[in-house]
Each structure stands twice: as C-alpha cells, then as structure tokens.
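Long-time lurker. I teach an intro course on protein structure, and each term I like to show students one example going from raw sequence to a predicted 3D structure in token notation. This year I'd like something fresh instead of my usual example. Would anyone be willing to generate the tokens for the chain below so I can use it in lecture? Attribution to the forum is fine with me.
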Amino acid sequence: MTFDRQGILWDAISGKTPPSPAAELMAWTFRAVDPDAGTLEVGFALDERFTNPVGSIQGGFVAAMLDDTLGPALVATLEPNQFAPTVSLTVQYLAPALPGEFVGYGRVVKKGREIAFLEGYLVDAGGTTVATASATSVIRILR
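-- Reply from a regular --
Happy to contribute to a lecture. Here you go:
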C-alpha cells in the first residue's frame, strides 16, 4: 500500500521504517486510515507474556494498545515535521482482555493548533469491546 503523505507514521505504514519498539512488541499492524476524517484502525496481537496473575492482559498493556491507536490517528493528520505526544490518557476497562488479537479504532475528536482531543476503543477477536479511551495530545514540531 502506498501513500503520498510523508512523516514517521507514513514511513512505518509503507515499510520504509519499522514501527516503534513498543508497537513491534505488541505486534502493531496497520489496517486502515482516513487522515481527512482523522480516523485510524490498527491491529495488535498479545500472548500470555502480557497477562496478569489471573490470565487477562495486564491493564497497562491495554492502555498501551489504546495509546498506540489514538496517537497515530492524530499523527496521520499532522504535517511531516510534527508529532503529538499524549499528555493525558483515560481508559475505561469494560471486559477482560484475553490473549489474542485485537483491533483498535481511534479518531480525532477536535484538533487545534497545539492541542488535540482523541477517543477510541479496543475490540477483541470475538467482537467484544474490552476498553475505551479518551486522550489529550499536544502538537509539537520535531527538531
């Protein structure tokens, strides 16, 4: 798949550069993007190495999957020299996330010159929404 856009997200999607180490650890895969709508769909695959003592994916990894969904949804809308670190992430855990495959859906709710508001959700392979999240990111120039 080729895109005429430039920047770190587009380089990772096109295979010019690998995803971040954290994204690679969670087997982040690109599924769909609509930069004009500010939406993104990505996949993840987490196994038993990511579980808590009762066998569910530990909540921090669920939050990380959501962060690696919401952030790229915003980055897809930015200029090549911009990046947007998350400054606030709120996660609502709705169901146990068991080892397996997940799909993250993220969208930009509102984007200003310096601040953006995001939301999204994470679905397991059976179609159950395991968590939702909202986030605030600050838009910065890469140096």
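Some talking points for your students: The chain has a mean pLDDT of 95. The CA atoms of residues 69 and 106 lie 6 Å apart.
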